[in-house]
Automatic annotation (TrEMBL):
<keyword id="KW-0969">Cilium</keyword>
<dbReference type="GO" id="GO:0071978">
    <property type="term" value="P:bacterial-type flagellum-dependent swarming motility"/>
</dbReference>
<keyword id="KW-0812">Transmembrane</keyword>
<dbReference type="GO" id="GO:0005886">
    <property type="term" value="C:plasma membrane"/>
</dbReference>
<keyword id="KW-0145">Chemotaxis</keyword>
<keyword id="KW-0966">Cell projection</keyword>
<keyword id="KW-0283">Flagellar rotation</keyword>
<dbReference type="Pfam" id="PF03748">
    <property type="entry name" value="FliL"/>
</dbReference>
<keyword id="KW-1003">Cell membrane</keyword>
<comment type="similarity">
    <text>Belongs to the FliL family.</text>
</comment>
<dbReference type="GO" id="GO:0009425">
    <property type="term" value="C:bacterial-type flagellum basal body"/>
</dbReference>
<keyword id="KW-0997">Cell inner membrane</keyword>
<dbReference type="InterPro" id="IPR005503">
    <property type="entry name" value="FliL"/>
</dbReference>
<feature type="transmembrane region" description="Helical">
    <location>
        <begin position="21"/>
        <end position="46"/>
    </location>
</feature>
<keyword id="KW-0282">Flagellum</keyword>
<comment type="function">
    <text>Controls the rotational direction of flagella during chemotaxis.</text>
</comment>
<protein>
    <recommendedName>
        <fullName>Flagellar protein FliL</fullName>
    </recommendedName>
</protein>
Amino acid sequence: MATKQAKAPAEGGAAGGKSKLKLIILGVVALLLAIGLSVGATWFFLSRGDKAAEPAKEEASAAPTRQPAIYQDMAPAFVVNFNQNGRQRYMQVSVALMARDQAQLDALKVHMPVLRNKLVMLFSGQSFENLITPVGKEMLRQQATATVQELAKQETGAMTVEQVLFTNFVLQ
């Protein structure tokens, strides 16, 4: 009887070992299947995204490209004075014009004295309190851009200048 009891646990242990081995094999197969599905789904969605991007690339190449920017410095720098609470204040501003067409910029150069006059009048009409803030400087730059674009449209018939840029700005 002792031999029968000794064999019984040995058979149960072998059966338990086979089931653990099957469980490990099933786990590995399930893991490999999950990895394969993940890689396949990723490949499917990425390859589908590339096909959708191709028409956008074709449309972008068909659209006209912007010409490179051309910068024209306005020399000498603008120096204007204004009064603030009975005190004389000065402002020095170096200005550059940004355009895309050299021929239109050359046509605007003919009218440079009028352009400089309009900018001097604009700069001298500012208040010191507004100009010491970054927002005030940006507002002045936008006003200068609008003034230059208005003159360019009036004199040359085209909006020659895209932006007016301040390359140096000193308040005293």
